[in-house]
Write a structure and sequence with these properties.
The protein is mainly α. It has a domain at 86-186. 44% of the residues lie in helices and 11% in strands. The protein has 8 helices and 4 strands, in the order E-E-H-E-H-H-E-H-H-H-H-H. The chain has helices spanning 28-35, 56-59, 61-69, 82-85, 87-110, 126-130, 143-149, 160-180; strands at 2-5, 20-23, 48-53, 72-77. It has a two-stranded parallel ribbon with strand order 1-2. A two-stranded parallel sheet has the order 3-4. Helix 5 packs across helix 8 (160-180). The two termini are 25 Å apart.
Length: 186
């Protein structure tokens, strides 16, 4: 899911499988909650806990209100503790940001660019940004992530205790790979 801050959807063709939204008032947290968090299997009938950092968008009144409507309790990790209490921030977000930066540099070096009358290079279009290769970050191409969202067809995934153990296994794998590779740390 990609959310851009803008009034209207431009007349561009976006890649298949990429959910693109535009929001004028930075209401993107509500979009994410509705299109990602609420779409989890079993969400409609159960309360849930969402743990995230103290980013301003996470703590906004409108976000808290939306979470209450969805029966979601939010736990906010205090500033400076995210990398300790949220291992995916180190093992997933940092490599993701590094990869996006590499894609940007590649686009800058190799792309066909348009220029303004003043001689400045134009930014990539929204469709070009959505074509950046971000799915190759995971060694399994994201297939392990699908297991976490499975509705119980796989053994150990989908049941209350099974899904927790599957998540714990993935987090443990990421922690071990992070410990082995010091370049992945902040």
């Amino acid at each position: 899911m990609v959310i851009f801050r803008r009034k209207r959807l431009p007349q561009e063709t976006f890649p298949p499988g990429v959910l693109v939204h535009f929001d004028e008032k930075a209401g993107w947290m509500r979009l994410w909650i509705g299109n990602v968090w609420k779409q989890r299997p079993g969400h409609a009938n159960e309360r849930s806990l969402l743990v995230w950092d103290s980013f301003r968008g996470h703590t906004a009144r409108s976000t808290r209100s939306c979470l209450r409507e969805c029966k979601v309790e939010a736990a906010v990790i205090p500033g400076g503790l995210t990398s300790i209490l949220q291992p995916l921030d180190v093992s997933l977000n940092k490599p993701f940001k590094n990869h996006i930066r590499e894609e940007w540099i590649t686009w800058m070096a190799n792309g066909q660019h348009a220029f303004t009358t003043g001689g400045y290079m134009r930014a990539p279009s929204f469709a070009e940004l959505c074509h950046f290769e971000v799915l190759d970050l995971h060694p399994a191409g994201g297939s392990e992530d699908d297991e976490l969202w499975d509705s119980g067809e796989s053994e150990g995934v989908g049941s209350e205790s099974g899904s927790v153990s599957a998540i714990e296994e993935l987090v443990e794998e990421e922690e071990l790979s992070t410990e082995a590779d010091p370049s992945t740390r902040d």
